[in-house]
Amino acid sequence: MKEVVVLSGKGGTGKTCIVGCFAALADSKVLVDCDVDAADLHLLLNPLIQENHEFRSGQVAVIDDQRCTKCGLCQELCRFEAIKDSQVDPIACEGCALCFHICPDEAITMEERLSGQWFISDTKYGPLVHARLAIAQENSGKLVALVRQQARQIAERDGLDYIISDGPPGIGCPVISSLSGANVALLVAEPTLSGIHDLERVLAVCRCFGVPALACINKYDLNEDNTHHIEDFCRRENIEVVSKLPFDNTVTEALAKHLPVVEYPESGVAQGIRELWHSVYNLLTQAN
Amino acid sequence: MIISVASGKGGTGKTLVATSLALSLKERGRVQLLDCDVEEPNAHILLKPAFVGSEAVFIPVPKIDESKCTYCGECARICAYHAIAVVPRHVLTFPELCHGCGACSYLCPEKAILEEGRQTGIVEWGHSDGVEFVHGKLSVGEAMPSPVIRKVKEHANGGGIVIIDVPPGTSCPVVEAVRGSDFCLLVTEPTPFGLNDLVLAVGTVRELGIPCGVVLNRAGVGDNKVERYCHDENLTILLTIPLDVEIARLYSRGVTLVEGLPAWKMAFVRLFDRIGDIANERSGSAKR
Predict the structure, then answer these.
(1) What local confidence, expressed as pLDDT, does residue B285 receive?
(2) Which domains are seen in chain A, by residue range?
(3) Nearest-CA distance from A246 to chain B in Å?
(4) Which CATH class is domain B2-30+157-287?
(5) Closest partner residue to A222 among B15, B140, B248, by Cβ?
(6) Chain A within 8 Å of B209 (Cβ-Cβ)?
(7) HEC string of chain A?
(8) What digits encode the pLDDT tens for the residues A136-194?
């Protein structure tokens, strides 16, 4: 079983549209949406939810007003500024429990936090594991690890060959959690100065975790000078640019209809994405 | 007046709006732009500030004084993040898991735990064309952006206009960046992804009790469901930016909208005035 994760550093470069297309093109796979804070892949795959689970992770401090003598020690020691006037701000609380341990009145308890939900769904293209982090919650990295583990179990159970994973933007906790242990990372870059900067940082994270990377330049014709810069950069870094996709309004038209753009097979970008999947598939098959 | 610019979905135009808004308000007083997207900061690419100072960001992690340690294991039991393990005659620490809460050091019965700083990022500041600029950069391979975001926000001046460029998503780094703002602008695009992530972002901002309004970017493609949602939710669309390849090309070259197309400046000044009206109205009604 091999896993490809699609990342970009910068948001909005086309990760989810590309993963939606891979869903339509690939055989024998499980799909997983690792962007648990702003999950969008389900909007292209129209899933039927088969299983719905609560995600409980971490704890939050709760002060019992009856026992609290308002001595203020908890507020003084909390490094997350989560306690004010003997009230806990559950959004700021990181669940460290220092207040629970030090409260002289034993007025503080730690309660388990409901941090989100995760789902196993059927789609016309195959099984999808996805999640929704509750509003303003932390521990997205743990939820990412959980959905990946579920995808792996489904692949093992059903004898599927590939896991195709839609990653989150950025380089922090949920990205690291999406990346570690994957066989290949496909980095989707756009030819803007911001896109180049963010590609460099996300590639450094791939290196940090030893995951081989490939690049794809989306909307390459928006700025061909920048496209050349990305190609030069990738050559120097020994990263293969497996595809250059043109800007094409058909992507947005398909999106408005909740369809991956490869469902419009005659469009230029659909042809490009078919070739892209072919390259990724070949490299994934050879990957360790 | 602190205005944060957020979005849920990445790549909708947060940095484009934040930079042009900051540049358009110079005549209104002291203006500061804080780039809190510390995983993938991009505002400096558009504003090209001259940096004048920098500061490393450290989180305090445990350092065991083995001469005092009795290997009682209390620190390992207390740590909510599993960042300490005690084995016979040795204490193992996992600094990358540590949140820096200080519980181990405070609660060690032998006072055998000191703290030392571990660098997780850097904050840099300078100025660009009359705008004071501050940004943070999370070190590659680090999972936790929040301490770097907190450090960037410590640089917020009192009294002037502060524009905060927020990371994408809806989870803890977004909350850290947006918290304390007087108003939050939510930048979206008229696609199912834009709408889905706008709904999530509105949920987060409302949870924080911060008034918000919408900037609709790339108007003219996709569908009108974002407008319908805004109408139903009583959210004002404060600025509409059309889908225009010229605007996309300017951004790709790292040129701000108001610099490349100066006619836009009036639109950003008007946007600021409308935000002021909404924020005042709200604080007026809160007093009543």
Answers:
(1) 63
(2) 2-46+124-286 (3.40.50.300), 57-114 (3.30.70.20)
(3) 13
(4) alpha beta
(5) B248
(6) no
(7) CEEEEEECCCCCCCHHHHHHHHHHHCCCEEEEECCCCCCCCHHHHCCEEEEEEEEEEEEEEEECCCCCCCCCHHHHHCCCCCEECCEECCCCCCCCCHHHHHCCCCCEEEEEEEEEEEEEEEECCEEEEEEEECCCCCCHHHHHHHHHHHHHHHHHHHCCCEEEEECCCCCCHHHHHHHCCCCEEEEEECCCHHHHHHHHHHHHHHHHCCCCEEEEEECHHHCHHHHHHHHHHHHHCCCEEEEEECCCCHHHHHHHCCCCHHHCCCCHHHHHHHHHHHHHHHHHHHCC
(8) 787 789 999 999 999 999 999 999 999 999 999 999 999 999 999 999 999 999 999 99
